[in-house]
Amino acid sequence: MNYGGGWPAVAYTLRKAVEAGGVRKLWRAMRSRNTCKTCAVGMGGQSGGMVNEAGHFPEVCKKSLQAMVADMQAAIPDDFWKRHPVSRLKSLTPRELEQCGRLVAPVRLRKGANNYEPVTWQEALDSIADTLAATPADESFWYFSGRSSNEAGFLLQLFARLYGTNNVNNCSYYCHQASGVGLSSVTGSGTATVVLDDLEKADLVFLIGGNPASNHPRLMRSLMEVRRRGGNVIVVNPIRETGLERFAVPSDPRSLFFGSDIASLFVQPDIGGDLAFLYGVMKRLVEIEAADKAFLNANCTGWEELSGALASMSWDDIIRRSGVARQEIVRVADLYASSDRAIFAWTMGITHHRHGVENVQAIANLALMRGMVGAPGCGLMPIRGHSNVQGVGSVGVTPRLKGAILKNLETQYGLKLPETEGMDTMACMEAAAEGRLSFGFCLGGNLYGSNPDLTFASRALGSLGTMVYVSTTLNTGHAYGTAHDTFILPVLARDEEPQPTTQESMFNFVRMSDGGAARLVGPRSEVEVIGEIASRTLARLALQTGDISWESLRDTAGIRQMIASIVPGFGDMKDIDNTRREFQIDGRTFHAPRFATTDGRARLHVHTPPLREIVDDSLIRMMTIRSEGQFNTVVYEEADAYRGVSTRDVILMHPLDLLRFNLVDGDRVTVRGPAGVLKRIRATAFDRIKAGNAAMYYPEANILVDRTVDPQSRTPAFKDVVVSISTPATASA
Ligand code: SF4
Asked: Which of 16, 32, 35, 38 to mutate to test the pocket of ligand 1 (most atoms within 8 A of CB)?
């Protein structure tokens, strides 16, 4: 395909409609007043499904359809567990596990058993509470996926702390934590500084280290509109992604029939070369006197240090460390210098690095150098993953509670909460492997699959006494992430919830989902499951819960009242049950250059871009990528339509690198990484990647990735792995 979206997307939609039981059935589900279940761009809610924050309809994409149709599957049959011992579950691909059907009954894998067996809710909830009552609180950890609601997130983190631990973390530690840490160090706030409407005002968008054509498709309409308004889009990515060059927006007839240009400029740095590239653009801005010194002096600190660093950084060094030619950097800077309103957007191509936080800070430097933060149509926009990953973070799902939340909880409810440091996701995994943890609880997600070094991850989770998964469908974690005693508790999907729930988009906009009728008998709501486990455990331990009426928290409206009084910026949540008025969170969007730092000024930072060269010819730098047919660890389609790749057991290499390794397209090779090895991988010619770099699919390739993390964000470097490639012949030589 030489463009994204278009008629193939329309055909795919019809195919999914048939799979879901017909167009009318799928339409009703997609139009229900629930927030889209997939990404954080944000759709739906009270304005009805397929409506975005600007009120535009229809706004729908393949990702939202894939998630919806997956929830519309039939139930996993009763005899499934007898026919599928764990060893057989391990032989299934992520897609095959996802398509086994919906979980409807609690199941348990007892110590020494090979098969999960259905158990009653009574047995499951009592056994879990008994175990918790017998476990020192700090030997437990609580992991949250960004798909859960604000109410479930708030309730479970509250219970974990009342139980006595701060080992509370969420999936963003393995994806966008660098954005939160980086942005907080610049503006004092860890989220996007813009709203969706700002994209409609921008005349330039930088898209760095991401492929929203596949992962956040509705953003393509906004980028198309930027180009239609005569603006520009600069894409920075080692892979020349098809959908980022041209995309046909299916809901726009002109675009559907004739396609739309997206990228004005496409820059391909080497993997990990972004930081040097960004410094090159900054250096050029100084050379052409395009830095807004008045803005910098009035609203920022650190300009003197940064301008000094830029002066001393040589072009040779920048080119060597970025892999980008000087004239390309010059073109980017000159185009940027001619823009009036620029937005900088990025995803994991920026955050999945040892220097992820530095990448984010450098992007902010570049924006601030031309006063592009703190004005309408300008700003910083991390493109987040799961539909409520930002929300669960906002309502307290972090190891250390934000100061205001802790104070409000303790003072308003007469609580004394634990003061222990609390562990992030990687720290919990390492503590489990060392036997310092014995109980794990995962609210959604696939903790195993999203880990680097999968062999280690399986061993670490296998060292736990008890693991509890709360899920809608099966994934690799249920096969490889089992403990001595493992439970899987089936829950309702967002649009099956018996009570309304809320979600927060990447634009800091809080939506309310109405929920709906359960599609299957058996699964329960997340809030109900958490409430049951909590009340049983708190009763067993006779733990004090201050002035909290636990009973009132069985009602999501009751939880919203608590969030409204506890979480800064969420005050409007107190009326949402009556008004149904969704709201923008206060204090996060900057349309004026007064930031949430102690002195209101933004902070500039100085960095030393890393050296990238690999001297050993038998090695190549590899980045893990997501395909068009998946969302995070969930694989819906084997094929990656936009890249023209039909299977997932591949390493994508530029033809020049195939030559360098004496390979031809399709050769079966062994790929060895710092943490593991993958055999019989198909070396695949892919001339859209920059020569000298390679790509493999996440999460399967995570087995190769070691546990090195960015020291500031604690996020693993999934997009920067040096691997060796050998054929049976060269391996034995
Ligand atoms: S872009 Fe994201 S929020 Fe919008 S419909 Fe697609 S998956 Fe849902």
From this structure: 38
Taking the centre of ligand 1 as the mean of its atom positions, its distance from the CA of residue 626, in whole angstroms, is 16
Only one residue has tokens 């054929």, namely 727
Give me ligand 1 centre to Cα 158, in Å.
30
User: Do 506 and 191 touch, CB atoms closer than 8 A?
Assistant: yes
- Domain 177-383 sits in CATH at 3.40.228.10
Q: What are the DSSP E strand ranges found in 253-389?
A: 260-261, 265-267, 300-301, 342-346, 379-382
What is the signed CA dihedral for 554, 555, 556, 561, rounded to 10 degrees? -110
Q: Do 105-170+388-579 and 619-732 show the same overall fold?
A: no
On the 0-12 / 13-18 / 19+ scale of CB atoms within 10 A, 297 is: exposed
Q: Does domain 619-732 have CATH number 3.40.50.2300?
A: no
State the distance from the centre of ligand 1 to the C-alpha of 91, rounded, in angstroms: 31
Distance (Å) from CA 505 to ligand 1 centroid: 10
Give residue 37 CA to ligand 1 midpoint distance, Å: 8
pLDDT along the chain (733 residues), means of 10: 89 95 95 95 90 87 96 96 98 97 98 97 98 98 97 98 97 96 98 97 98 96 97 98 96 95 98 98 98 98 98 97 98 98 98 98 98 98 97 97 95 94 97 98 98 98 98 98 98 98 97 97 98 96 87 94 97 96 95 97 97 84 97 96 97 97 96 97 98 98 98 97 86 58
Ligand 1 pocket test: pick from 12, 26, 35, 36 the residue with the most ligand atoms within 8 Å of its Cβ.
Answer: 36
Any idea which fold 105-170+388-579 has? Rossmann fold (3.40.50)
For tokens 């009552």, name the residue. Answer: 133
Q: Whose CA is nearest to atom 3 of ligand 1?
A: 42
Q: Which atom of ligand 1 is nearest to the CA of 52?
A: 4
